[in-house]
Amino acid sequence: MGHDSPRAALIYQHASREADQSTADTIDKAVKAARRKPSKRKRAAEGDGSAA
User: What is the three-state SS of the chain?
Assistant: First the structure.
């Protein structure tokens, strides 16, 4: 990994893992919020007044 010691490498890995988890949590929240909203296509089909 290019670190001066195995301890330094472990500290870096831990910090990196926490940052990765934070990023994943943020993306997960965004995806869940997007899934709760009806899509524009679905809203247009429901509100266009045409019978299927």
Answer: CCCCCHHHHHHHHHHHHHHHHHHHHHHHHHHHHHHHCCCHHHHHHHHCCCCC
